[in-house]
Amino acid sequence: MSTLLLAATTFALGCYALASVLVLVRLVRGPRAQDRVFALDLLYFHAMLVVMVMGIRHQSDRYFEAALLIALFGFVSSSAMAKFILRGEVIE
Q1: Phi and psi at residue 10, in whole multiples of 5°?
Q2: How far lies 27's CA from each of 8, 34, 65, 71, in Å?
Q3: Element containing residue 88 per DSSP (H, E)
Q4: Domain ranges of the chain
Q5: Could you tell me the pLDDT band of residue 78, with boundaries at 50, 70 and 90?
Q6: What's the pTM?
Q7: What single-letter DSSP state applies at residue 2?
Q8: Are 85 and 34 in contact (CB under 8 A)?
Q9: Which of 10, 17, 35, 79 would staple 30 via disulfide (CB 3.0–4.6 Å)?
């Protein structure tokens, strides 16, 4: 792996770590439930991006499959939380 790619992935992981800390602050301090749901949505998105950067860094396809699973479960959980906030129930 080239030095430039190693530096770029390290920088990207640092940026995602900083962004995740800021999102955690919003998750804790969020005045409304919508803010907290959006913060959780961003956290799974950041986790997916971190796994993808790690896949680039380690040059492995397994990481991209894990990122796909994180995206799938994140979408389903976000939809369930939105439905719960709107209707007060998930299963009708």
Answers
A1: -65, -45
A2: 28, 10, 27, 19
A3: none
A4: 3-85
A5: confident
A6: 0.84
A7: -
A8: yes
A9: 35
